[in-house]
Each structure stands twice: as C-alpha cells, then as structure tokens.
Write a structure and sequence with these properties.
313 residues; six-stranded parallel beta sheet; alpha/beta; Rossmann fold; 12 strands
Length: 313
C-alpha cells in the first residue's frame, strides 16, 4: 500500500504539514515528513507518493506520483527570477497545488499538468478554544502573534502604538520571537508585554483572552499573494480584529467577510480608544469551513490521491 512522503525544504514553519499528516493518518495512511536528505535515505522510495512543499527540485523524484505544492512564492533576493527558474527547470509533477489563484497566475505554468487550489486552513480545535465571557477582564487590549523585525517594519507599528496611547493604560501583548535589537529597543516600554514564542495552542489562548487581535502583514512579494494565516485564526476565534491595509489582509477580509478595522501601514496611527470601541467581533460559526479537513476535501485533491491510495473515512 502506498504511503505519503511530505517533502519540505526544512527552512520554515509550515502549518500545512501537520494538517496534512493528521488528515491522512486519520484515514489509515502512513505519512512521513522530511527533507530531501531524508527522502534520499529511504530504501523503499517506490512505495511513496511524494507530496513536495515546493523549493527547487530539478531532478525527477523516484515515485510514479509526485505532487508539487506551491504554498508560497519564492522569498529573498531575486524572488521573481527564482519563480521563473521553478517554472522552467523544476521536474514535471503529476499534480500541482496552489494556495490561491493569484499564486497560480503568477507561476504561469502552461503545460497540461492538472492543478487544484488548496487554500490555507485552521486546526479544527480552534473552534473549541473558549471565548472570553463578556464580564471577564481581558488580559490585554491588543494581542499580536507573528514576526517582529525591522525588515518588516514592525518597529513602526510599535512606535505608532506608543505614540497614540502614551497617556493611557492601553496594552499590547506581543507573542513570538522579536528580533534581538527590536526587543532591546522596546523592552520595558509602557503598555508593551513581550510574551516570547509559544506553541500555537497557548498563543491562541492568549488571543482569546485579549480584547482585539492584530494582523500585521507585509505589502511586498511574496506576502502580497499569500493568505494571512493569523487573520483566519483570529476570525475562527470570533475575535475583534485590527489589521493593516496590505493587499492580502484586504482581499482576505473581503473574500471571507471577516469583520476588521482596516488601518494604514503602522496600524495604530490615528487609533483612539473611541475607535477601539467600534470594533465588531466575528461570529466563529461563519468560519467553520476553514477547518483543515473541510479545506482539504473541498480542494478535490483526494480525487487524485485516491488513484494511488485507498482512503478510509
């Protein structure tokens, strides 16, 4: 019986990997995840359907069914050239996956390889995270999870927060690993609480106990073509949301009808306590279709995988 090998570059955090593993393992499939080095070490490569989170794989893999999953466009210097190289030099797969049609259109493959759209999802357990009761005291006015670096301009977000709320007791809870020099600049500043990096469940539990969740997403490539995962998670938690007007945030709010106060690049510029009170919570029941099991099944990928693997329900 075929197994699934989830091939990944090993350089980033891919929440999709755990979702794929959990989904197919629950259906009786043996799933293994690893890098190209791990794959090369396998003695029984022919027993595996290979599902590759795409990097650069110009050599054909030793499987008679290979999936190329373009979860993200290329990052770093010459990102556009890297994507062109992937278009023309990556080995031909049996199936391609794209996170959304925007990414599919950027890659512009013009062969006859079939493709499916498999959007971002959220873990099903998010819908079981307790919501803050109306009479409970919030642990923070704002909560942000994610990257905190100068490269992404997050220092401007913090500066705007400190400036706007310098004479109030408004708090901003920051979850994640900040760039060291950013932490050194802002540690101890009034209203800021650095919680450090936390497992996903613990991080989202803090969001649930805060008043407003903050989604800050970059404007540049490849982020302008990606779905902001945290925005989906905040909506699934039923939170009030504040986000910057990055193309991805705006598109996601419009496409999924997510309630959010959309502001400028520094998020907190011009933000007042009165504006905070206008934020409307989301109804988490409206977003149950974002659970990974539902997203995977609606993508139609199983019609291809079931050609090689018997999926039990």
């Amino acid at each position: 019986m075929y197994k699934i090998f989830l091939l990944h570059p090993g350089r980033a955090n891919y929440p999709e990997l755990l979702a794929y593993q959990d989904y197919y393992a629950a259906r009786g499939v043996d799933v293994v995840a690893g890098t190209l080095t791990d794959y090369k070490a396998l003695e029984n490569k022919a027993d595996f359907l290979v599902w590759a989170i795409m990097g650069f794989y110009p050599k054909q893999l030793a499987s008679d069914f290979v999936i190329h999953d373009y979860r993200s466009l290329s990052v770093g210097g010459s990102a556009g050239l890297k994507d062109i190289a992937k278009r023309y030099l990556n080995a031909r797969p049996n199936l391609r996956i794209f996170q959304n049609t925007r990414q599919q259109n950027i890659m512009k493959f013009n062969d006859d390889v079939p493709s499916v759209i498999l959007p971002m999802g959220v873990p099903k357990w998010i819908f079981d995270v307790p919501q803050q009761s109306p009479d409970a005291e919030d642990i923070a006015d704002f909560c942000y999870i994610g990257d905190m670096s100068f490269e992404r301009g997050f220092h401007l977000v913090i500066d705007a927060f400190l400036e706007n709320f310098r004479e109030s007791d408004v708090s901003l809870l920051l979850v994640g690993k900040p760039e060291p020099r950013l932490y050194e600049r802002y540690a101890g500043k009034r209203g800021l609480v650095f919680a450090g990096p936390l497992p996903q469940r613990e991080a989202l539990a803090l969001v649930a106990k805060s008043s407003i969740a903050v989604s800050y997403f970059p404007y540049h490539r490849p982020h302008c073509y990606q779905t902001p995962t945290k925005l989906l998670e905040y909506a699934a938690l039923g939170k009030k949301i504040l986000c910057n007007d990055s193309p991805s945030n705006v598109a996601c709010c419009e496409d999924l009808r997510i309630n959010s106060i959309i502001t400028g690049s520094s998020i907190f510029a011009g933000m007042t306590i009165a504006t905070m009170k206008t934020a409307k919570p989301n109804e988490r029941a409206n977003f149950t279709q974002l659970a990974w099991d539902s997203v995977i099944e609606k993508s139609n990928i199983n019609s291809y995988i079931s050609q090689k693997i018997n999926l039990s329900q």
